[in-house]
Amino acid sequence: MPKTLFRLFFTHRLAALAGAESLRAIREGLLWLLPCLLVSASFLILAQCARALGLPVQVSEMFAGLHTQINSVLPLLVATSIGYMLAIRYRLPQLPVALLCLAHVVIASYLLRDYPLAAATFVLFIAIASPLVTVPIIAWLHRRRWTRLVHEDLVGYNLKGTINMVLPGAVTVLLLVCVLQLLLQIPQFAYMQQPMSLGSLDSPYRSAALLTSANSILWFFGIHGSYAMQPLFDVMDQAVAMNASDLAAGQPVRFALNSGLLGCFAFIGGSGGSLALVLAILLFSRNQSMRLLAVASLPLSLFNVNELLLFGLPIILNPRLLVPFVLVPMVNATLALGAVQLGWVAPSVATVPFTAPVLLNAYLSTQGDWGAVLLQVVLLGLGTVIYVPYVRAIQRQSAENAKVYLRTFDTTFHGLEEKGRLFELDPVVASYKAAALRAHAFSRVQQLSEYEFHLEYQPQVSQRTGLCTGCEALLRARDRGGSEQSPWELLQWLGQAKLMADVDFWVASQAVRQHLSWQKSGFELPITINISGATLASAEHSERLLEILARAQGRVSVEVTEDALVGDVLITQRLIGKLHAMGARFYIDDFGTGFSALSYLHQFAVDSIKIDRSFVLAQHEAKGAQVLNGLLRFCETLDLGVVVEGVETREQLDFLQSSSELIIQGWYFSKALPAAQIPQFVIDTAQRVQATRRPLTEG
């Protein structure tokens, strides 16, 4: 049992780490660079092939130059992609934030222009790390009212979001400049040496162990090792160039350890020597989902691309594969160094891109040494042998978990693992399903983009006085043909597209705008709006909602359904407190139809409840009538305001008896009306009451 508890704790801790937003932003953002890297690598392969075929020098130089140019903008692309991912996380305008992160790298490169060693070491690190710091700062600043240059109602959403990025962007740029200028005052930073120099290669075995293990460990935590350690790999590239110079001068080659050796022999199939893992799974695993993933990964692994394995198995944050993932490239590099120093294999003297095909990369890097190709095959087999016990251990643990003996019931539950595998996320199948869902969601949202959204307002009438005391804002939409669309279906689509918070902000803005318009014309009537759980669940969204409602000075209140209250209690309590402070009210909608209605009444400072239409319709049955009367007596006892929804007939109205004032909302008095008709409805209702001078309940 302790072993099981420890395993569960460790697994949950790793899962939490894997889900960290910063690591996710790095992982997902860097994946977007893969096409650029492959294009860049293709140019370098073409350059090497042009040299090997004896084509004019200009041809190889052109391809090599294209490769260099793409690589020169790599830090800009890294910062842009990570910034874009973080902007999604913080619900900021994505492109403005991504371009600001790009500008940060440009600024860092400019400030470090006179410090080449510091620039070589830190520019790419700044590209990866700076968005993790600057984007949260931008998000914090963006929530401050003083940074907003454009009012909510003056321009469109996109233009407003872009312009309102100006001040947060300027502040973060100034902070970055100040930090870098302060760091440049430190000699150890400004005039630092590269973390590894050519002199370090005099101890090649130690340096190889450091490089390969650091690369694997970084990847284990979801950080692209070759990006994070680019300055170190630059030294490895220099070693290859110097080897080529030595060979051309007829001198002994100096550096056995270089980027060619690491790329051709240490990282066969990608980080961790993962082509060996693919072969180990295909040869020794009977797990169908793992085998399917290995088959899908095999073509990419032949080009040293292993992202599908890293994120599919996954290898990232998977403690079962950490040891071989670190060990295989370390063993490969050690044996390859030994073979080179013994003269069995020629040293690498030509720069070959990391994504050059397996076997071909060894042949090109050593300028045609078939011994290098044979060594690569041997190392691939050895790596497979190292991975096999771990693959078998995963399978063995699956078998051990395949049944559970329940002692109390004297029975064994078979097939736990197999049944679990039926619901396991298959990366290949899931990718197609996800693509289909995204396409379906996109088509729905695209359809919604053609709708004309607007609000209508359903009056609320006091049963005691007969006067209109308020109204509820209801979302409506017309399609291109002018036909009204079902609001429930619209909200369902918007919820699936994760747009409900944006809908809430729009509804709040429109309701506040309508209140201000009525107020300007001398008319006042309280409005309530519906808010979704997506807004209540986020402190950031709640704050933005409060900023919008503050302009109405308490005349626009909030109602939520019970299921929307299932979330962060403290955030909801803070929202209610601030609503009350500005004079607004808080309603629970569809009261009694959820699972925990009574608990919400002591957790939250609720002003009123809205009794769902289903209770009104049930009054014709004896049990239904008792429940409805019980609800009304319950509200009287707690001194809660009551709004009864769905009242459509005089009979339903007369049944509602309470010593407290009941507010009636339903078709008996009015359907939802356009905003322009509400003032006249209020006037007509008041005149009718004045004419009759008797309570509505008298018949």
Overall average residue pLDDT: 80
Q: Shape from CA axes?
A: elongated
CATH class of the domain at 438-698: Alpha Beta
**Major β-sheet profile:** 8 strands, mixed, barrel
**Biggest β-sheet: strands ordered side by side in the sheet:** 3-4-5-6-7-8-9-10
From the 3D structure, determine the CATH topology of the domain at 438-698.
TIM Barrel
The assigned CATH architecture of the domain at 438-698 is Alpha-Beta Barrel
Q: Considering the protein shown, what is the CATH homologous superfamily of the domain at 438-698?
A: EAL domain
The number of helices is 32
Our estimate of the beta-strand percent is 5-15%
Low-confidence stretches: 1-19, 412-432
Question: Which structural category do the helix and sheet elements fall into?
Answer: alpha/beta
Radius of gyration: 34 Å
Helix content: 55-70%
Distance between the termini: 72 Å
